[in-house]
Amino acid sequence: MMERHELMAASVATAARGGGLSEEDVALLGRAHALAMEPRVATIEDDHDPAYLHPGRTVLVLLQDVRDVPVDALCAAAVHETERTDLRVGVDEVRRVLGDRVADIVEALPLPGDERLLERLVTLDRPSLLAALAERLDQLRHAHLREDPVWWKEEHLVPASTTIRTTT
Question: Within 13 Å, how many C-alpha atoms sit on residue 57's CB side?
């Protein structure tokens, strides 16, 4: 019987083929998913933990809901991790396994807590921005499963120095 992450890898490959990606691109995306799963398989004991299938779900958001996202951005979305540092894949490893184009995108994607977060997001090209947003969307879609009250407070607290502008 296949493991849950293997079933997810198959779903990602099927969606990628259905989205018109070449077999070469499907193989690259498969390597990205496998790379993103390495720390998860080693670290997460419960394969129903929301963080476990996060890389595949992030890619599926882009393949099923956005479509026409370049494979390099799909790969970057798979390995991008904004919540848990123990599940992040280092950019050097991304570069070694997936190449310079994917690593350059991953390197450009901001992480929460970055003092230039908004600036960095608005200066990303469209595919990179989509990768960042899909990754964050999947994190937030599963936030209701978090039991950590500190995370909830930090995630929803707007700093006093933040100016919110509205238009009418």
Answer: 17
Q: What is the pLDDT of residues 19-51, one digit of tens each?
A: 999 999 999 999 999 999 999 999 999 898 889
Q: What is the pLDDT of residues 85-98, one digit of tens each?
A: 999 999 999 999 99
DSSP secondary structure of 10-73? HHHHHHHHHTT--HHHHHHHHHHHHHHHHHHHHH-S-TTSTTTTHHHHHHHIIIIII----HHH
Q: Could you give the angle at the alpha carbon of 121 between the alpha carbons of 120 and 127, nearest 5°?
A: 120
Tally the domains of the chain.
1
Does any domain span residue 166?
no
At position 88, the amino acid (one-letter code) is R
